[in-house]
């Protein structure tokens, strides 16, 4: 989703802005641009192509400057066209980049039009530029403060005025923005990774903040117009993960990194104690009477798998919510609830809003599971667990998902330990199983050639079914989501027993059905469900544990995942589904790491 980079310095900042945009490409975008201060009138370059192509244009036109702002845009209001790309100017004086949505842009537009402003774009952002311009009397800071007071919605902005060559102003509410300070320069960015190598000193702005940046200095103002000191954080960032190595796509690389990512997430854990979770202690867990899991997309699927773990292991009632729906319903809340937002990026607007809604209801025992240290979510909750997936670049979440599952399993087992439902023998058994998991994952991933063969058939269809039962039903949902988002094949997941209640009508030889078949208590029921498909000429592709008795005879295609892995089995079964989506996408030659219309970090509601 939209990415912002800005810099004010004493040297040419354009190479740094372009590098910053490259590092934000993972968020997903459909156009990009850079603007710099120049005596007389600001200059800019914008395009609907990739950042590399913007960089070529910039070098052709010799765009340079010591004050500049840059942006990757993921269209919400207005088509992905060059004229809608940011930076957006107001009367060649004010330059703005924006992430978020100004919900009252229509009424603001009417006011500004009456004042004589002419709109050149279809964006909501243009009202920001003109509004700042309308308040501008030579002091950008006060113009931005006055403008932001009129916005409804979410925003992170970076702005400069062409009349103030050594100054940049930023503001945020609901969308992320971090400021960075160097010796003789100052920066703004949506994500600290954009500034790696330029500074280690960061200030995470809070909702309602406005920040005034000059080379080597910044002053922050809160929403009440008071000057505030936000804490500096020294963060050494690594760009590790940013290179493809021998892989064809980041998604493939990230799928194969999972054994390592799981091992990293487990780290040195040798006991299920509250201290595994940063900021938590025994009291965090003792009082818990219910768990509320919040997330979107893949992170929501992680919650659905974990629901069964919390119930089985810790004997706790669990509510799993799609974050974008949660706050629009009346909730009957239990004050003993542990609220667990799950998010790879930690910046997903819907999940953040759901978390804030829960906090507003007085549920303040909150524990975030995320993959990005210092992300909004990790800073907002009382305790947190940072997964060890490392930077995930592919839009399709893979290693972030399996490491979220590890974190959730640890949480369920730790709650169980504190509540007395996990005796010490069982604790050792869980820890051993977790330690054994990376090797089991490697064995499953080694079956990639068979998945490629499946993909050559499945990729020729436009629809597919995914079936699972128990904790493998959300795994089927995750498999279907992957196939949709990467291979653009319509896929639906069903709890296998549901098929005969309607969807079976769609089963024909043209409808491949992918089944997750663990060797668990529901196996015989699942086999009956598979028979229902076979009897209608459906093609079955089965991911099965050894010992299930399922084999490649009788019109079945079977991929073996090894012995049943107990409660952790869903983690092994999702791996072939990730690979299947990936190879179907390869066969259909889609843009795998940046699938159409999607963004890595979904920072608008
Ligand atoms: C999964 O492949 C997706 N790209 C998407 O569903 C993602 O999981 C969702 O947008 C939530 O993101 P988050 O984990 O960063 O909050």
UniProtKB/TrEMBL annotation:
Q: Name one GO cellular component term.
A: cytosol
| Keywords of the record | Aminotransferase, Cytoplasm, Glutamine amidotransferase, Repeat, Transferase
Q: Name one Pfam family in it.
A: GATase_6
Q: How does it assemble?
A: Homodimer.
Q: Which gene encodes it?
A: glmS
- Write down the NCBIfam families for this protein, in alphabetical order: glmS (TIGR01135), PRK00331.1 (NF001484)
Spell out the reaction equation it catalyses: D-fructose 6-phosphate + L-glutamine = D-glucosamine 6-phosphate + L-glutamate
Q: Name one GO molecular function term.
A: glutamine-fructose-6-phosphate transaminase (isomerizing) activity
Q: Which processes are annotated in GO (biological process)?
A: amino sugar biosynthetic process; carbohydrate metabolic process; fructose 6-phosphate metabolic process; protein N-linked glycosylation; UDP-N-acetylglucosamine metabolic process
According to UniProt, the name of this protein is Glutamine--fructose-6-phosphate aminotransferase [isomerizing]
Does the keyword field hold Membrane?
no
Which segments constitute the Glutamine amidotransferase type-2 domain?
A: 2-224
Q: Where in the cell is it found?
A: Cytoplasm
Which function does this protein serve? Catalyzes the first step in hexosamine metabolism, converting fructose-6P into glucosamine-6P using glutamine as a nitrogen source.
Q: Which residues form a coiled coil?
A: none
Question: What is the E.C. number?
Answer: 2.6.1.16
Give the SIS domain ranges. Answer: 272-421, 454-595
- Tell me the active site: 2, 600
Origin species: Paraburkholderia franconis
Report the principal subcellular site. cytoplasm
């Amino acid at each position: 989703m939209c990415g912002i980079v800005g810099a004010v310095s004493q040297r040419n900042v354009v190479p740094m802005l372009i590098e910053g945009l490259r590092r934000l490409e993972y968020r997903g975008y459909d156009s990009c641009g850079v603007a710099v201060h120049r005596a007389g009138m600001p200059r800019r370059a914008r395009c609907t192509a990739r950042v590399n192509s913007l960089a070529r244009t910039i070098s052709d036109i010799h765009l340079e400057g010591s004050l500049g702002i840059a942006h990757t845009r993921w269209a919400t209001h207005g088509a992905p066209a060059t004229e809608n790309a940011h930076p957006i100017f107001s009367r060649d004086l004010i330059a703005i980049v924006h992430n978020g949505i100004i919900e009252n842009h229509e009424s603001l537009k009417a006011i500004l039009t009456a004042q004589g402003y002419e709109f050149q774009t279809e964006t909501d952002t243009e009202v920001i530029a003109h509004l700042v311009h309308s308040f501008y009397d030579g002091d950008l800071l006060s113009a931005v403060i006055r403008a932001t007071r009129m916005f409804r919605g979410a925003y992170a902005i970076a702005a400069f005025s062409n009349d103030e060559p050594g100054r940049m102003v930023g503001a945020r509410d609901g969308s992320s923005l971090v400021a960075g300070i160097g010796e003789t320069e100052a920066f703004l960015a949506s994500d600290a990774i954009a500034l790696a190598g330029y500074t280690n000193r960061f200030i995470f702005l809070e909702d309602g903040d406005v920040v005034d940046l000059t080379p080597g200095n910044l002053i922050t103002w809160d929403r009440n117009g008071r000057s505030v000191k936000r804490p500096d954080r020294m963060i050494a960032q690594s760009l590790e993960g940013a290179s493809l190595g021998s892989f064809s796509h980041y998604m493939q690389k990230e799928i194969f990194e999972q054994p390592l990512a799981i091992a990293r997430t487990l780290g040195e854990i040798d006991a299920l104690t509250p201290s595994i979770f940063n900021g938590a202690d025994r009291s965090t867990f003792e009082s818990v009477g219910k768990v509320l899991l919040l997330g979107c997309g893949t992170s929501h699927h992680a919650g659905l798998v974990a629901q069964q773990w919390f119930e089985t292991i810790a004997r706790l009632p669990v509510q799993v919510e799609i974050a974008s729906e949660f706050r629009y319903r009346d909730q009957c809340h239990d004050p003993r609830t542990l609220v667990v937002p799950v998010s790879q990026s930690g910046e997903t607007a819907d999940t953040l809003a759901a978390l804030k809604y829960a906090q507003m209801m007085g549920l303040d025992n909150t524990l975030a599971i995320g993959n990005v240290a210092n992300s909004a979510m990790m800073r907002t909750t009382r305790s947190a667990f940072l997964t060890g997936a490392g930077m995930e670049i592919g839009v399709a979440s893979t290693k972030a998902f399996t490491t979220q599952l590890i974190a959730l399993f640890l949480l369920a087992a730790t709650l169980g330990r504190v509540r007395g439902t996990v005796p010490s023998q069982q604790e050792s058994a869980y820890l051993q199983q977790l330690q054994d998991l990376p090797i089991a994952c490697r064995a499953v991933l080694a079956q990639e050639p068979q998945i490629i063969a499946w993909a050559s058939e499945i990729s020729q269809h436009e629809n597919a079914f995914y079936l699972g039962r128990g904790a493998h039903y959300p795994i089927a949902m995750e498999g279907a989501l992957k196939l949709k988002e990467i291979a653009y094949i319509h896929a639906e997941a069903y709890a296998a027993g549901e098929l005969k209640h309607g969807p079976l009508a769609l089963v024909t030889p043209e409808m491949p059905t992918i089944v997750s078949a663990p060797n668990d208590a529901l196996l015989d029921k699942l086999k009956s469900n598979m028979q229902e498909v076979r009897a209608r000429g459906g093609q079955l592709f089965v991911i099965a544990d050894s010992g299930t008795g399922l084999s490649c005879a009788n019109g079945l295609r079977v991929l073996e995942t090894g012995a049943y892995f107990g409660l952790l089995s869903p983690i092994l079964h999702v791996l072939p589904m990730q690979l299947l989506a990936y190879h179907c996408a390869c066969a259909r030659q889609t843009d795998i790491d940046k699938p159409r219309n999607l963004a890595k970090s979904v920072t608008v509601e």
